[in-house]
Amino acid sequence: MLEPNLTLHIWILQCVVIFISLLIIWVIFLSLRSRFHLREIPMPPGHFIFGHLFDILDKENQLIKFTKYAVKYDGIFKIYVPPTKASVILTDPELIKILTTTQLDKPKDYLFLKNWFGHGLLTVPVKHWKRQRNMLTPHFNRFSQMAHFVKIFENYGDELVAHLEGTSDGNIEMLPLMKWFAINSFCEIAFSQSKVFHEAYNHKYFESVEMLQKICVDRSTSMKRFDFWYKFTETFRQEWKALDTVNKLFEEIVEKKLEEQNENNANVEEYENFLDMLLKLRKENGLTIEHIRHEINTFLFAGHDTTSNGLAFTLYALSKNPKIQDKIFEEQSNILGDKVKVTYSDLQQMKYLESVVNESLRMYPPIPLIGRKVTKSMNLAGKYHLEKNQNVGIFIYGCHHNPKYFPEPEKFIPERFLNGNAANSLMTFSYGPRTCIARKFAMLEMKSCILKMVRKFHILPPKPDENIHLYGSVVLRTLNPVRISLKKRI
Question: What's the sign of the alpha-carbon dihedral 81, 87, 92, 93?
């Protein structure tokens, strides 16, 4: 008869063997499922256990690798990251248009932004989305307000170039400056509050926004995607610390607005701004402060981070292309003459400038990947059967760097948007009903700022010159800073 201790050891060993056996069976099942699921859609080679996880985490090469897959597999392929099912990746513009026109739901990974954006427009369930979209759209696209927007862009643009004129640094890191310009412009337009960020180019808010994006990506590629597990991690505590900073900014903005409304001598605004509208709905329709916070957090992020990225990358591209700068300067000279201040009408006439911005947004799409969830089984273009709840990634960067849709995709060629049909394949602002609500606003802001810079400076490469190394996060990021140097025009 075996001794009790030996019996216990054998029992523990048997349990370990059973657990390991079940784990191996589970891993084999997941791997085989990824290969047989969506059989008609090709899948690039991946690790037997970890699928394409290492490709995603390889910041140095992730965009290059997946763009090569997009070209090789003609605009549609699938990738697998355990334990989820394989996801479909689209880069074909026509397939993207079909999907984004008919499928409006977001995948589960968007829920990793829920604590930040809640029921804001980006993450709200689709059953509530349309009502919110209709309510918010006029505040960033009304023609009568565009002239007012341009005045604000002009004022902050003047401050920006005055700051740059006073710097003695030959190599200027552009992203912090562009964030300052974009977020202050947005705050004045959306909240009628000027200089919210004063001279703080590295405000804690920006650090917290960066942290929240990193956490979202981290959760989507690890076991932290499971809420139960996630709540016991250090990342969970980091998220709430970052959220505390973000929410304090919201509280400051709303508190200041409420104080202004309570003052008897409050100035009458030229138009009802975004925050005024939300606070009005609070009184009339019972909109909660929490809901207002969700919308403010959503638009405050979207209103500065993507635009500031686009501006920094455009200036970087111009530093490599002096002849394109000359064309912008020539166009503005023909339209403005000796005028100092630029109007909305002036910007609308600058078609070459607009083509430059479009080309920059093609090469450096601020959001490299967006997602959709199939809510009802469908046949995509009559070829690919997608089941209900299938996750689909729309790889905008891969679409924009595919020579099938944009010849010589690694060259900066604004003329492609003046001649031909390049604009039909541009997916920067998505497509369909859920296209970016503030795309006109963003284009106007970028044109205004870039024009201000080109009128004042020759934009030159940094010394020593260096190429930027891109990788995909929630927004497009670089492993090294985006730097330029400037020479004042005579």
Answer: negative
Residues 203, 246 contacting (CB under 8 angstroms): no
Distance between CA atoms of 416 and 423, rounded to whole angstroms? Answer: 8
Rounded CA gap, 346 and 334, in Å? 11
* Calpha distance 128→105 (Å, rounded): 11
d(CA 200, CA 179): 10
pLDDT value for 421:
77
Any known ligand binding at 187? no
CA neighbours closer than 13 Å in the CB half-sphere of residue 489:
13
Residue listed under structure tokens 């990342």:
235
Specify the higher pLDDT residue, 404 or 134. 404
Place of tokens 């992730």: 62
In this prediction, residue 74 carries a pLDDT of 92
Cα distance between residue 390 and residue 173, in whole Å: 41
Instruction: Give the 3-state secondary structure of residue 283.
Output: helix
- Report CA-CA distances (Å) from 43 to 3, 62, 68, 95, 457: 54, 16, 13, 17, 48
For residue 409, whether the previous peptide bond is cis, meaning omega lies within 30 degrees of 0, is: no
Q: For residue 340, what pLDDT band results from cuts at 50, 70 and 90?
A: confident
Q: Which residues contact 138 (CB under 8 A, 6 or more apart)?
A: none
Distance CA 189, CA 182 (A): 11
CA distance 425 to 442: 19
Beta bridge partners of 391: 373
How many Cα atoms within 13 Å fall on the side-chain side of residue 124?
Answer: 18
Give the pLDDT band (50/70/90) at residue 1. very low
- Max CA separation in the chain (angstroms): 104
Higher-confidence residue of 85 and 263: namely 85
Q: How would DSSP label each residue in 66-116?
A: HHHHHHHTTTEEEE--TTSPPEEEE--HHHHHHHHHH--PPPGGGGGGHHH
Q: Which residues are CB-contacts of 32 (< 8 A; sequence separation ≥ 6)?
A: none
> In this structure, are strands 476-478 and 470-472 parallel, antiparallel, or unpaired?
antiparallel
Dihedral pair phi/psi, residue 251, rounded to 5°: -60, -40
Q: How far apart are CA 296 and CA 254, in angstroms?
A: 10
Q: pLDDT at residue 293 above 80?
A: yes
pLDDT digit string, tens, across residues 69-112: 999 999 999 998 887 788 999 999 999 999 999 999 999 899 99
pLDDT in tens, 418-444: 987 788 889 999 888 999 888 999 999
CA distance 172 to 462: 8
What predicted TM-score, i.e. pTM, was given to this entire model? 0.90
